[in-house]
Amino acid sequence: MSVDDVASMMDDMAERDSIPSNVSQMLEQASTELRDEDKDISVRVNAASSLLDQISNDPNIRQHTRTQIWNLASKVESLD
Description:
The chain is mostly helical. It has helices spanning 3-14, 21-35, 41-56, 63-77.
């Protein structure tokens, strides 16, 4: 799976109506971090992983969404 694939998955998830706006913003930020080719891939992965970790700890998201965030985090970590 490529960086663009994972970033696109984040973008798709951020656009869902069931996702709280603060979570959507963080997903978009994580996607932007991943696509920032001015930074080394390990820096991009760490930044995106950190944002996904913050999202997964949000008490206001549904369990199903949390599981999807964990799946995204796993995909991000495999990019490094």
